[in-house]
Specification:
Distance between the termini: 113 Å
Number of domains: 3
Strand content: 15-25%
Shape: elongated
Largest sheet: 8 strands, mixed, barrel
Structural class: alpha/beta
Length: 635
């Protein structure tokens, strides 16, 4: 009879029991990989215990009943297969997270089912082992299938680790490959030296490596706090998306940053503990997550409709440490996971929410939907188009002719910027009303304004527009540009570079420009006026147009918005108002431009009212510069 070494099983049982106790006491965040890790520890212990029983019954008591021999041997073989299958799923969930795919899930379970069927039926078929001869284990014809199954699972482990290595740290990759090598080596030793039962101790060592590199519960906590971190949060989000039973609430503590700057590290930690305790007390330990020092997220049941109000009502309105109180408040955003397809969608929108909070946007309590996420995605795509156009000179400047009634000629044109959507593949235009506000909000409008101005100056001189009867070009000036302290210097430098006289430039401004910095704007206008540049007031008749604003703006030209012209065509009262405005402005020596002239009837109306200039589709749509040149030559 062979001398078997029992110490391997005893060591494995001891290690697995210690790890199981330590891991459970640390109360790790419940994850799929964590559940499989616990499963591996339990299987390792069961394998060690059943192996000891099998050795005792089959080898030390060879005359035991045949049914008893199979009763203790079959659990050993099942545990062995289950151990390798569990390790495969563990690597799978570590590498791919909560979304492993149906094929990957079925692959492991299919191999386990086939091998288990052979093992369970072996008392009748002897496919795996024959224990009918006392003191002997006769290898069956399909015994090799166990090792083929293990080989396939280990090969899959290697493939998964290599495929998804970019999502793993070097420590995680090292631990995964070390586990694969240990299990393979143990299987090789066990196959060639049956008396050395090293599988169990190898599994226990792998569990130790996994604990150190992959399953340390502290990986799911935010720093030294008792709150789970963003890693745990997005796992919870994935489960919420699948269940469609939860809601997500994100809190930002406004005032935290100010308070934290007043405190040392010890008191900052105390403040973090206090905040964590506050949220955990309301929403529970497993539902509360700390995403950053001042950002908390909770996952609550959809039926708990007043969950956000609970925190708001319980929040004291201040943060205090060492009796120092500073005013603070909660900014809240609610998300419905059913609107999203994956946790990556939620990650994107959470980042958006945090940025919104930092910018001071939004209400105290608001709700984010998938539609909002799609809108933000579209805005980011448009901004990408804008930045690409700035870098590659990708903007197009089109021109809409302006007709002077007195001379009967097209003496001017308005320069209009156009941007193609080259990122979506259709090459269509993005409306200026869409990308201009985004450019203003994201600090890009000054660059765009200079690009337009330089393009107009270059076009005017290179195309010799003055010889074609064009006295000046109207260029829109953004309210943001109007309050740049170096605006006049920049525009003058561009005009000098292209040798264009200031009398050939008319800058269009709107009344809203005064709302930013009225004094800087007026100083810029006066300086440019002194240099010979003229100004016009655009979009008159919209927003908060009033005579006081008009009087404070040194403009010579008033451009009536298309909406005012359309209303006058449709309504008699509006027509009287428009006529009175024009008469008053003429008395004040302003020149007037009617925008949106699209029919002969409209032209007749504004001409009778005394308008000086006409602009609209009746004469020409905005056209690219080559077509504008051809238009001038024909007219």
């Amino acid at each position: 009879m062979a001398a078997f070494n029992y110490s391997y099983d005893l060591i494995a049982i001891l290690l697995a029991a210690i790890l199981l106790g330590v891991y459970s006491l640390q109360k790790p965040y419940p994850t799929n990989s964590g559940s499989i890790y616990l499963y591996l520890l339990c299987i390792t212990m069961i394998l060690g215990i059943s192996d000891l029983f099998a050795l005792s019954v089959i080898w030390r008591h060879p005359d035991s009943a045949l049914w008893l021999k199979y009763l203790v041997q079959i659990p050993c073989l099942l545990c062995y297969i289950s151990l390798n299958c569990g390790f495969y799923y563990y690597i799978l969930f570590i590498a791919k997270g909560e979304y492993c795919g149906l094929f990957n899930k079925l692959f492991g379970i299919s191999l386990w089912v086939i091998a288990s069927a052979f093992i369970i039926t072996t008392p009748f078929t002897h496919f795996i082992e024959d224990l009918s001869i006392p003191g002997q284990v006769i290898i069956g014809p399909l015994f090799f299938w166990i090792f083929i199954t293990n080989g396939l699972l280990l090969a899959a482990d290697v493939a998964i680790t290599l495929t998804y290595r970019r999502y793993l740290s070097k420590l995680q990759i090292g631990a995964a490959f070390a586990g694969i090598v240990l299990i393979f080596a143990a299987a090789f030793i066990q196959y060639n030296y049956p008396s050395e039962h090293v599988i169990t101790v190898a599994a226990a060592i792998v569990a130790v490596l996994a604990y150190a590199a992959l399953e340390d519960p502290s990986n799911y906590f935010f720093g030294d706090s008792k709150c789970y971190n963003d890693k745990a949060f997005y796992i919870a989000v994935g489960k919420s998306i699948e269940s469609k039973k939860d809601r997500i609430i994100i809190f930002r503590i406004e005032g935290y940053e100010y308070v934290s700057h007043m405190l040392d590290d010890v008191h900052v930690r105390e403040l973090a503990d206090e905040l964590g305790t506050f949220f955990r007390k309301i929403y529970g330990r497993h539902n509360t997550f700390c995403l950053s020092n001042d950002i908390y997220a909770v996952v609550v049941s959809r039926e708990r409709t007043d969950a956000a109000s609970e925190a708001i009502s319980d929040f004291k309105g201040y943060l205090s440490v060492d009796e120092t109180k500073v005013t603070a408040s909660l900014k809240v955003t609610e998300l419905d996971p059913s609107h999203f397809n994956s946790s990556s969608d939620v990650r994107h929108i959470v980042e958006t929410v945090i940025q919104q909070h930092l910018e001071g946007d939004g209400q105290r309590v608001n709700e984010m939907t998938r539609e909002y996420l799609e809108m933000r995605d579209n805005e980011q795509r448009i901004l990408q188009c804008v930045r690409h156009a700035i870098k590659t000179d990708g903007f197009e400047i089109w021109y809409q002719p302006i007709y002077e009634d007195r001379s009967g000629k097209f003496v001017s044109a308005e320069a209009l910027i156009r941007l193609r959507d080259n990122l979506s593949g259709n090459g269509g235009f993005i409306p200026p009303s869409v990308f201009i506000p985004l450019a203003e909000k994201n600090g890009l409008i000054v660059q765009i304004g200079e690009i337009v101005f330089e393009s107009v100056c270059r076009f005017y001189t290179e195309s010799r527009l003055e010889k074609l009867g064009v006295e000046y070009i109207e260029v829109n000036l953004s309210p943001v540009q109007c309050v740049q302290t170096d605006l006049t210097l920049r525009l003058q430098n561009i005009m000098r570079r292209y040798g264009i006289g200031p009398e050939h430039i008319n800058l269009e401004i709107t009344e809203t420009a005064q709302s930013r910095d009225k004094h800087v704007m007026q100083r810029n206008i006066r300086t440019l006026l002194n240099r010979g540049v003229t100004f016009s007031l655009d979009d008159f008749g919209t927003g908060f147009s009033n005579i006081d604003n008009l009087a404070s703006l040194p403009v010579s030209l008033i451009k009536f918005d298309k909406s005012l012209i359309d209303n006058a065509m449709a309504d008699e009262n509006s027509r009287i108002i428009l006529g009175s405005l024009l008469k008053m402005l003429k008395c004040l020596k302003y020149k007037c431009v009617a925008e949106g002239v699209e029919s002969e009837e409209t032209l007749s109306m504004v001409r009778e009212m005394g308008c000086d200039y006409f602009q609209g589709y009746f004469f020409s749509r905005p056209v690219p510069s080559p077509e504008y040149i051809q238009f001038l030559k024909k007219n």
